Amino acid sequence: MLSLTRIPTGAALGLLLTFLFLAMAVLAPFLAPYPMDATVGDVWQPASAAHWLGTDNLGRDLFARMIYGARTTIFIAAAATAISFVLGSVLGFAAAVVGGWFDTLMSRFVDLMMAIPTLIFGLVILSVLPSTLTTLILVMGILDSTRVYRLSRAVAADINVMDFVEAAKLRGEGRGWIIFREILPNALSPLVSELGLRFIYAVLFLSALSFLGLGVQPPEADWGGMVKENKDGIVFGVPAALIPAAAIALLAISVNLVADWILNRTTDLKGGRGNG
Questions:
Q1: Which of 142, 167, 225, 229 holds its CA 20 to 30 A away from the CA of 159?
Q2: pTM reported for the whole predicted model
Q3: Smallest Cα–Cα separation from 31: which of 46, 21, 17, 41?
Q4: What is the dihedral sign for C-alpha 231, 137, 31, 4?
Q5: CATH number of 9-38+51-275
Q6: What does the pLDDT read at residue 262?
Q7: How far apart are CA 244 and CA 251, in angstroms?
């Protein structure tokens, strides 16, 4: 039985930080002291009672922008990660089960996609497509699905030759049953670990795109775009660009801690059942 009473310190800290980030994203309109794009002071004011983190390059409250930026960053990264996992895992499992020409065609296509650096590929695509959140999420999800496909196919190929899968095939079960009832439950451990890594990668990818001007467009707030907007302040000792950068790093660390703990727990539970 999975007990939550004994959580390692690192995992507990990761859970706490992840929960705080999620709460910030969900409750952004209620937590933000000012509207997202409202000019409320002078440019790059220092932290004060009125502006807890100071103001940005246009005099907007940085704390309010950080809260709304958490909502945008987490939503886009989560949506892109969900698309990449649904698309990549289903196609990877199907390729391992079907085999033959389908496996060869899909694997070579994925190899071709992965041969092009993801950031460059994303910049080229987004430079010719409309700058909308839907486009951004789809491009990020499809490009990242190639990594999930490779992992899913490798895991499914190992599971597909096991005795319980062969028994299901002899019973006459269809490919859908094999994929979703036999392979998927036994592939969850590596997929859960990869889920955390893919989410972190999506956050970093989105931040890089926004920093280069092809991600979230102003006046919408996201952490990567906030780094770009305030980067010139670093020369004058203004930390406005360092705060969203630190938030990106802290989110990545907290999610990684949670993913590692979940992976260790599921692995221990399987080992315990096997020994019993």
A1: 142
A2: 0.87
A3: 21
A4: negative
A5: 1.10.3720.10
A6: 78
A7: 10
Query: Are 40 and 61 contacting, i.e. CB atoms less than 8 angstroms apart?
Result: yes
Rounded (5°) CA angle 50-21-79: 125
Query: Mean pLDDT in runs of 10 for the chain (276 residues)?
Result: 66 91 92 90 89 91 94 94 93 89 92 89 88 90 93 90 84 82 83 86 93 87 91 88 93 89 67 41
> In this predicted model, what pLDDT tens digit does every residue of 190-225 receive, in sequence order?
888 788 889 999 999 999 999 988 888 888 889 999
β-partners of residue 61 are 55
Tokens of 56: 């940005």
Tallying the residues shown for the chain, one arrives at 276
pLDDT in the model for residue 270: 52
In whole angstroms, give the CA distance from residue 202 to residue 198: 6
